UniProtKB/TrEMBL annotation:
GO terms for cellular component: cilium; cytoskeleton. Residues 158-257 form the Enkurin domain. This is Enkurin domain-containing protein. Residues 85-98 have a biased composition (Polar residues). Coiled coil: none annotated. GO terms for molecular function: calmodulin binding. The keyword Cytoplasm applies. It comes from Triparma laevis f. longispina.
Length: 261
């Protein structure tokens, strides 16, 4: 809620600063937990370096100690932990113990200046002319002399016979069905007038529904896809069929309907 008293400026009150923080510990005292200046041989000024060096035991591994038993000259040499002595191990490696090729020595020089007087084009042509062509290998089987050469396999005759029997059975069944349909007289009944009127009304309703969908696409002169063309042609065929059915039911005279057997 707005008030006119809010427009009156309030007097500025300067905040009071808290007293400066002073630690209760001596700032010049060495830090007992500091590791600064521990690594190396030069002691840095400040920190608890001197105190830590007093607790620097022989078990530490960072840098040598005064009582270290390892000498700088006693380093691990190649082949010192192998079963063979170093001399035999080096000779074994030079004699082909490694799968890698030997590195060429400094005094080794590549062979240079080698030339040949052979004409490879002429040599290849002469070799191709004088070479004997390879004859096809004969496995010893003469298919012409076989007993069934040139004859129809027996299994093909069996398959043809099975197909002939199946076709005869199908023809006999169809012939019997057609004979029964020809012998039975076809019966017709007159369609009721009310049923004919109901069918005409339903066909007209269906025609209106199809025509409404057809009118949405019949005015188009270009179609983007084959689906649109098929849809238009399908609606035209459906409208034509409905019109023929309506004309058939509306013609003068009675409508005869065949009874389903």
């Amino acid at each position: 809620m707005e008030s006119i008293y809010n427009l009156v400026p309030e007097p500025y009150v300067e905040p009071q600063k808290p007293p400066m923080y002073r630690s209760k510990y001596d700032p010049n005292a060495p830090l007992t937990s500091s590791t600064f200046g521990l690594h190396g041989t030069t002691a840095t000024v400040g920190g608890g370096v001197n105190e830590i060096r007093k607790n620097h035991t022989l078990s530490s591994t960072f840098g040598p100690t005064s009582q270290s038993t390892t000498s700088a000259a006693n380093f691990l040499k190649a082949g010192s932990k192998t079963r063979l002595p170093p001399q035999q191990a080096s000779s074994f490696m030079r004699s082909g113990g490694s799968s890698k090729p030997l590195v060429p020595r400094r005094e080794d020089k590549p062979v240079m200046g080698l030339r040949t007087s052979k004409n490879f084009i002429t040599a290849n042509a002469v070799e191709a002319i004088l070479s004997v062509p390879q004859m096809p290998q004969n496995d010893g089987v003469d298919y012409i002399s076989k007993e069934d050469y040139g004859k129809v396999p027996e299994y093909l005759s069996q398959v043809k016979e099975e197909i002939r029997r199946e076709n005869d059975m199908i023809d006999e069944y169809v012939r019997k069905q057609l004979a029964q349909d020809e012998d039975a007289p076809e019966e017709f009944t007159e369609m009721e007038e009310q049923l004919r009127i109901d069918l005409i009304n339903k066909l007209k309703t269906k025609w209106d529904d199809v025509n409404e969908k057809y009118q949405k696409i019949c005015h188009r002169t270009s179609f983007e896809s084959f689906g649109d063309i098929a849809f238009k042609e399908g609606k035209e065929r459906e409208l034509k069929k409905l019109e023929n059915d309506i004309m058939l039911l509306q013609r003068a005279g009675s409508v005869m309907v065949s009874e389903d057997r």
